[in-house]
C-alpha cells in the first residue's frame, strides 16, 4: 500500500492504493479535468460540479464498455470465420490429394 497525494478541484486528497501511482494520478487528473470542464462558464458549486463530472465519467465508461463488447463480438465472429476457412482449406487439400 502506498499513499499518493493528488489535487482535485483545488483540494488535496491523500489516496491509499495498491495500484501503480501513475494510475491514481491519471484518474485524479481525469476527475479534475472533468469537474473543471463541467464548472466552466457556470456557477456550479464544487459538489454539483463533482456530481455532473461523475455522470460524464460514468457515461464515458458505459460507452467504452459497449464499444469493448462490440469489438469482442466482432473478434469472435472473425475467429469463427477464420476457423471455418481453415477447415475448408484442409478439406480442399484432402480432396486435391485424392
Notable features of this structure?
alpha+beta, 2 helices
Characterise this structure.
The structure is a single chain. By secondary structure, the protein is α+β, with helices and mostly antiparallel strands. It is built from two helices and two strands, in the order E-E-H-H. It has a two-stranded antiparallel ribbon with strand order 1-2. Helix 1 crosses helix 2. The protein is elongated, with a radius of gyration of 24 Å. The mean pLDDT is 94.
Overall strand count? 2
Strand ordering within the main sheet: 1-2
Structural shape: elongated
Largest sheet: 2 strands, antiparallel
Which percent band covers the strand fraction? 5-15%
What Rg is obtained from the alpha carbons, in whole angstroms?
Answer: 24 Å
Order of helices and strands: EEHH
Helix content: over 70%
Enumerate the spans where pLDDT stays under 50 for 5 or more consecutive residues: none
Secondary structure topology:
Elements: E1 2-8, E2 11-17, H1 21-39, H2 46-97
Short description:
Helix content is 72%, strand content 14%.
